[in-house]
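Query structure, 66 tokens:
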């Protein structure tokens, strides 16, 4: 009886590190977004919003003496 052994072909790595480059770009982009939007938002939450009172009517009449 003959024994047949099928060995798989050697797998070639055709990626060339592209996944690591894409991952690094994504990490840099997310870090940039955190510094631009995340830190100011955290600072705003921690300090609270300032209360601004705007009058509904402003008198701009000038009384001049004759």
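Result returned for the query:
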């Amino acid at each position: 009886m003959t024994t047949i052994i099928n060995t798989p072909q050697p797998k070639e790595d055709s990626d060339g590190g592209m996944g690591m480059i894409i991952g690094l770009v994504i990490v840099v982009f997310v870090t940039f977004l955190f510094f631009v939007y995340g830190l100011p938002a955290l600072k705003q939450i921690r300090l609270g919003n300032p209360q601004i009172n705007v009058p509904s009517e402003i008198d701009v009449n000038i009384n001049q003496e004759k």
